[in-house]
Amino acid sequence: MKESLLDIICCPLDKHDLELSVDEREDDEEIVSGTLTCTDCGEAYPIEDGIPNLLPPDMREA
Amino acid sequence: MAERRGLADPVYAPAEDSGLLAEAAAARARGTVLEVGTGSGWVAERVADVDGVERVVGSDVNPHACRRARDRGVEAVCANLLDPFRGAAFDAVLFNPPYLPTDPDAEWDDWQEAALSGGASGRDLIEPFLDDAGRVLAPSGVALLLVSSLAGFGEVIEYALDGGFRAETVREESFPYETLSVLALTMDN
């Protein structure tokens, strides 16, 4: 995902901002893996293979 | 039928409804666009080439679909409907929902079912989408919703009007078992 996606996405549970922590970046722009954490409720959402998984925890695939 | 619809594949393949939605988007989508339930990303990829469209994000509840869409070059987000999107973030939101009315006892409980089944009424995903669409649309934004007569065209219109939208049919095509329409929904303000 691109960092500018943060202007568009929010926590699915309470709509607060997400804080980005990057594990792996590609070509400076694309974030391949990392975590998005809600600044309010603290729920963490993984970024894997460039795709943020913003499903609520009870809908994530096991 | 199973082979034609590609039921062995966990991702919905583009069909007549996808083409109709892409045509409507070419006429009406501008600025920052979200395609909800992007599936293979086929519609989103086409919308990215439309004049005046600056950015297209594709979301899907199905992680297989998200990967497929990303492989096509679509910015993908794994999401349930509009849940993780900010208020007023989009100039256009597109949705070709799962709309086949389905007997609960006959449901398959897999990704193809999630892509096709709209519950007993056919509107299980359409109604929550309409409940939240006004929130994510920028002022003067438009939601383009594919509606099949199988899900009840009149019922969908009525639900949208009750939710404060104005509705206009921008595309319509009849098939032997259903009529497909694309509604352009704008907020009354």
From TrEMBL, chain A:
Q: What SUPFAM superfamilies does the entry give?
A: Trm112p-like (SSF158997)
Keywords tagged on the record: Transferase
Which top-rank group of organisms is this from?
Answer: Archaea
One of the record's GO molecular function terms: transferase activity
Matching entries from Pfam families are given as:
Trm112p
Alphabetical list of NCBIfam families matching this protein: Trm112_arch (NF038101)
Q: Per its record, how is this protein called by name?
A: Methytransferase partner Trm112
UniProtKB/TrEMBL annotation, chain B:
Q: Which UniProt keywords apply?
A: Methyltransferase, S-adenosyl-L-methionine, Transferase
Entry keyword Transmembrane helix: no
Recorded hits in Pfam families, A to Z, give: Methyltransf_25 (PF13649)
PROSITE patterns cross-referenced by the UniProt entry: N6_MTASE
Which Gene Ontology molecular-function terms are recorded?
Answer: nucleic acid binding; protein methyltransferase activity; S-adenosylmethionine-dependent methyltransferase activity
**Key word Isomerase present in the record?**
no
One Gene Ontology biological process: methylation
Record-annotated Methyltransferase domain positions: 33-96
One cellular component term from this protein's GO annotations in UniProt: eRF1 methyltransferase complex
| Coiled-coil features, chain-numbered ranges | none
Q: Which CDD domains match?
A: AdoMet_MTases
- Stretch forming the signal peptide: none
Q: Which family does it belong to?
A: Belongs to the eukaryotic/archaeal PrmC-related family.
Return the PANTHER family for the record: METHYLTRANSFERASE N6AMT1
Write down what this protein is called.
Answer: Methyltransferase domain-containing protein
Q: Which organism is it from?
A: Halorarum salinum
